[in-house]
């Protein structure tokens, strides 16, 4: 769980990209306090990917398994009831799992190799402003299908099940 500052940078880059390039998603939970903040409304607040149909609707992100109670940057340190931890802690867990996924020493397992290639491709596309949006959506679906098929509920759980 090192480099939390990189974590925030990556997360913010990713969320900013989706915010600019994909249509806005509704906020379903009426929270008067949320309206006074600049909230990135169309991505998971925890992992930053485009996994939610709505924000603040208590949907569970398929990539990081964070339950979207509407918490975001402005209350990162607050305990998120349904997640039993703060958003800051949740973000570090996802960041750590993603780093492990990208780390060469975990290359041997087929599932990890495939997931790694999907995430690499996706992250590369996000870094290019003119990327094909259909391709980005398709990669999200590929990752989700693979996680579902292997009953991976939150990216970090992959490293508890496979050695
Ligand atoms: Zn997520």
Write the layout of secondary structure elements.
Elements: H1 4-21, E1 79-80, E2 85-86, H2 87-102, H3 110-127, H4 133-149, H5 158-161
Antiparallel strand pairs: 1-2
Helix pairs in contact: 3-4
Residues 44, 46-47, 49, 51, 61, 63-64, 66 line the site of zinc ion.
Largest sheet: 2 strands, antiparallel
Share in helix: 40-55%
Q: How many domain units?
A: 1
Radius of gyration over C-alpha positions, nearest whole angstrom? 15 Å
The portion of residues forming beta strands comes to under 5%
Query: Overall mean pLDDT score?
Result: 86
Written account of the structure:
With 163 residues, the protein is mainly α. It has one domain (1-158). Helices cover 45% and strands 2% of the residues. It has helices at residues 4-21, 87-102, 110-127, 133-149, 158-161, and strands at 79-80, 85-86. The chain has a two-stranded antiparallel ribbon with strand order 1-2. A hairpin with a 4-residue loop joins strand 1 (79-80) and strand 2 (85-86). Bound molecules: zinc ion. Residues 44, 46-47, 49, 51, 61, 63-64, 66 line the site of zinc ion (ZN).
């Amino acid at each position: 769980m090192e480099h939390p500052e990189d974590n925030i940078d990556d997360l913010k880059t990713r969320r900013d990209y989706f915010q600019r390039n994909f249509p806005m998603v509704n906020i379903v939970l009426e929270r008067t306090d949320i309206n006074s903040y600049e909230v990135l409304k169309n991505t998971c607040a925890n992992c930053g990917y485009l996994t939610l149909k709505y924000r603040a609707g208590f949907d569970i992100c398929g990539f990081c398994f964070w339950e979207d109670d509407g918490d975001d940057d402005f209350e990162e340190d607050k305990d998120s009831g349904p997640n039993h931890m703060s958003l800051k802690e949740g973000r570090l867990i996802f960041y750590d799992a993603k780093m492990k996924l990208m780390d060469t020493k975990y290359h041997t397992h087929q599932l990890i190799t495939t997931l790694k290639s999907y995430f690499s491709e996706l992250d590369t596309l996000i870094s290019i402003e003119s990327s094909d949006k259909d391709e980005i959506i398709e990669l999200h679906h590929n990752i989700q299908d693979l996680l579902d098929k292997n009953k991976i509920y939150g990216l970090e759980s992959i490293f508890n099940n496979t050695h």
